[in-house]
Design a protein that fits this description.
Largest interface: A-B, 103 and 95 residues
Helix content of chain B: over 70%
Radius of gyration of chain B: 19 Å
Strand content of chain A: under 5%
Shape of chain B: flat
Largest sheet of chain B: none
Number of strands of chain A: 0
Order of helices and strands of chain A: HHHHHHH
Structural class of chain B: mainly alpha
Number of helices of chain A: 7
Oligomer: heterodimer
Number of strands of chain B: 0
Largest sheet of chain A: none
Shape of chain A: globular
Distance between the termini of chain B: 41 Å
Helix content of chain A: over 70%
Structural class of chain A: mainly alpha
Chain lengths: ~190, ~170
């Protein structure tokens, strides 16, 4: 049984520490929920994140809701959202009020210049940890599945960046293609 | 004069018809500028604050709400972006019901692969914003290395990055 106090405290920690945008926050949630507390497994985390992509609104909210629901039901949803949002929303509002007075300071601009690439560095790490279980599952199924997985991974990136396909279309398209592939594999196993 | 109820509806609609924290940006931009309730500059400021403040980047909308409608605007934004994600429970329920089917498992795996691929594109875009120059690449690489050790908290990495930014760019 997960203690409610401990659960709230963990999410408050996420809300307080998650500087650096969405990638850093997801990274922090993964570290807290999977690695430290074991509320869900590595592959559950990747799958839940996939489900959040097709649900409306901010994906990290969906992630907090799913993890909260799995851990403690409705109370877990409320605690996870409260913990993640209370510090970050308060700081966001405070920063907005304060920003107006210091926005032209070159020191603030310089610090931002350092923070943005660091976000990218942590984001790459997160991307790797999301990709790893997907490729591992495909590798277990054989060479064709691994090839299909790599093709969709690279193809989606190229479709969005070079062909300017809408993100939603790329997500549903890749989902549909791999669904067909899996169905075909299950239907005619070798 | 800003009608708060309409503002709330516009915020809610934008969140409902997006699947990411910044997917609501084009919709809101169009709606608020057309009514003259927000300026391009306010959008840029709100997005920047969303980047530095903790939590999801999608909280930029709260900053925008504050700039546009004060504290009440910020709280309206908070409610408007918290309600739509609750639908994820229904989506997950659907997944639980049909999740055993190989096609459904394949769908989510294909979707997750695309998410990871597009994630790289987003990171590339963020990096292009500051320029692919040696100082920025060095900071990104150091953050990646520090993160990989799992010893340094994220806020520590960010504090070091801010310090590096001040030392290298000012």
């Amino acid at each position: 049984m997960i203690s409610k106090t401990e659960f709230l405290r963990a999410w408050l920690g996420i809300g307080l520490q998650s500087f650096g945008g969405g990638a850093a926050t997801l990274y922090l949630i993964r570290r807290t929920a999977v690695e430290r507390h074991g509320w869900l497994s590595d592959s559950d985390f990747t799958r839940d994140w996939g489900i959040c992509q097709i649900a409306p609104g901010i994906n990290l909210f969906g992630m907090a809701i799913l993890i909260g629901w799995r851990a403690l039901g409705a109370a877990g949803v409320a605690l996870a959202l409260l913990g993640m949002l209370l510090p970050s929303v308060a700081i966001t509002i405070g920063l907005t009020a304060a920003y107006a007075t210091i926005k032209s300071q070159p020191l603030v601009q310089a610090a931002l210049h350092g923070v943005v690439p660091a976000t990218v560095g942590l984001g790459l790490l997160l991307g790797y940890s999301l990709l790893r279980p997907l490729l591992a599952a495909s590798r277990k199924e054989g060479r064709a599945s691994l090839l299909a997985a790599v093709a969709l991974f690279a193809g989606s990136a190229l479709a969005v960046s070079l062909a300017h396909i809408s993100v939603l279309a790329a997500l549903w398209g890749c989902g549909g293609l791999f669904a067909l592939f899996s169905w075909w594999r299950a239907r005619w196993p070798r | 004069m800003i009608d708060l109820l309409t503002l709330f509806w516009l915020l809610l609609k934008a969140s409902l018809f997006s699947t990411t924290g910044s997917g609501n940006l084009p919709i809101l931009h169009q709606d608020l500028l057309a009514r003259g309730w927000a300026t391009d500059r306010q959008f840029a400021e709100a997005l920047a604050i969303g980047q530095v403040s903790p939590g999801p980047t999608g909280l930029w909308v709260i900053s925008l709400g504050y700039l546009v409608g004060g504290l009440r605007g910020a709280l309206l934004s908070l409610v408007a972006i918290t309600l739509p994600p609750l639908a994820v429970l229904a989506v997950a329920g659907f997944y639980r019901r049909f999740g055993g089917h190989p096609a459904m498992q394949g769908f989510v795996r294909g979707l997750s692969l695309a998410v990871t691929g597009i994630f790289l594109v987003v990171l590339f875009g963020i990096m292009r914003g500051v320029g692919f120059e040696p100082r920025a690449l060095l900071i990104a690489l150091c953050a990646l290395g520090l993160g990989a050790t799992r010893r340094v908290p994220v806020i520590g990495v960010m504090a070091l990055a801010a310090l590096a930014g001040i030392l290298l760019y000012s």
